[in-house]
Amino acid sequence: MLEQLNKLEKESTAALETVSSSAALAEWNKRYLGKNGALTQLLRSVGQLPKKERPVFGQAANRVKVALEAAYEAKVEMLQRKEMEQELERGALDVTLPGRPRRPGHLHITTQTLRQIYAIFAEMGFQVYESPDVETDEMNFELLNMPPHHPARDMWATFWISDDVLLRTHTSPGQIRVMRERYPEPIRVILPGKCYRYEQITARAEHQFYQVEGLAVGHGIRMTDLIGTLTEFARRFYGMDRHIRIRSSYFPFTEPSIEADMDCIICQGEGCRVCKHSGWLEVGGAGMVHPVVLQNGGYDPEEWSGFAFGLGVERPAMLKYDINDIRLFYGNDLRFLRQF
Ligand code: DAH
Prior knowledge:
Layout: H1 2-18, H2 22-32, H3 38-44, H4 54-90, H5 109-123, E1 127-128, E2 134-136, H6 137-140, E3 165-167, H7 173-182, E4 187-196, E5 208-218, H8 223-238, E6 244-249, E7 254-263, E8 280-289, H9 291-296, E9 305-312, H10 314-321, H11 334-337
The structure holds 3,4-dihydroxyphenylalanine.
């Protein structure tokens, strides 16, 4: 049997030399190393040998098996390399094929809208002033003329972080910060930023959204300056034929307080679904800075006066771009975001 084994080794090694394709190699493997291959069968027949001869034969057979398996692996690798080289020669790998393009990112619709607003106010001399998202009760309410338990606090459903720290419900606390920093300079700033309200999320309302606050403090600043500024903004943002109307309103931090509307950009004031058939759309809340607020900011109300306003950002963008659901802004659906 040892002789048989030697013969098999020689024969199979010679056969492997002549193999030149994967198909032939698989065939060779089946013939010698496979389940019913010649070597496997020979190994199985070890039981027919006299006991004494078995170890010698077993060792020899194992050596042959290991050698043939190694030769097989080497051949697999060699054939793969050869086939790859042949493919390259045939030009199957085209290194000039363009890569998959990466889509460049772009500014979010909210950022684009904010920048349009900055540009309009910049031309009217307003600087951008940023103030923190996490505020104290004192800044967000008290110094804006809303002491604890003031009923007007109910206008702002609040995310409280602790008893006296909260997520700002509006950008108005920035008014106090900028006044305290700039006194005794006159002030003309806008204060953009995210605001947070503990409210039900619907197609019209999010629990986080942007506002742009405006503040002008100086000598002899009047309500007509405020109305002129808001009119100019509406015309620059929505189109030169816009008209503004003023309604009286109430905010604790302004006196008097107003609400500014413009004629509907969809129906030009005729009345439609968007303006709920009133012909008017809300622009924002505003007013003359309350004397208590001026004082809290360090400005003597006997000497100084000012106006302030608060504008939304998403709602104007919704109007301008015909977006019908505010939840799309921060839903991170690229099919929506890529449209702008
Ligand atoms: N802070 C108000 C709000 O969030 C908006 C506002 C109204 C801001 C009147 C003002 C203002 O500066 O004068 O509802």
